[in-house]
Specification:
There is one protein chain. By secondary structure, the chain is mainly alpha-helical. It has helices spanning 2-35, 43-57, 59-64, 73-77, 80-114, 128-154. The relative contact order is 0.15.
């Protein structure tokens, strides 16, 4: 099961990276097309869709790597059962919020598909297509939060800490 979950988190991270590269290409095409005096219709909208997809698809992988911003002022001051209790409380609230966000993201994409909702720009993209990346990212984030909660309850959670805070100047 652990290998499957890690594959899921890494898979969405790879998709996020692909979206970032595609975003770079879209922005470069937009710049080049303006310099060459021709228009690629909808390229700015697609760049926005790709940016959102990259952000949402990377959420779970970022959580599992310990790269989300965390305020540890209180948790670092606590020890033993009180620290574990606070971690379980925070992870429970986070899991519930992530599950709600996933539910409503999936519902939004489904409703956009049902109502044949399209973007108002020149591209006239069916909105469920870009919303699908948000729904998938939110769902995988909810799974990752539940995974962290279960690992904390079982006492097997290892909190990966980013070394970025140690490299400040």
């Amino acid at each position: 099961m652990r290998r499957l979950l890690n594959f899921l988190y890494n898979g969405t991270a790879v998709l996020a990276a692909i979206c970032m590269v595609a975003l770079l290409i879209a922005v470069l095409l937009s710049i080049i097309s303006r310099q060459m005096h021709f228009l690629i219709s909808g390229i700015d909208a697609y760049a926005g869709y790709l940016m959102a997809a990259a952000g949402f698809l990377a959420l779970a992988h970022t959580l599992k790597r310990g790269e989300h911003i965390r305020v540890t002022l209180i948790t670092n001051a606590l020890k033993g059962p009180s620290k574990k209790g606070l971690e379980i409380f925070a992870l429970t609230v986070g899991t519930l919020l992530a599950a709600l966000f996933a539910y409503y993201s999936i519902r939004l994409a489904w409703q956009s598909h049902e109502f044949n909702d399209i973007s108002t720009g020149n591209d006239a993209t069916p909105l469920w297509i870009p919303q699908l990346s948000m729904a998938i990212g939110a769902l995988v984030m909810a799974i990752a939060c539940a995974d962290e909660l279960i690992l904390e309850i079982l006492g097997r959670r290892t909190v990966a800490s980013s070394g970025e805070a140690l490299r400040n100047e």
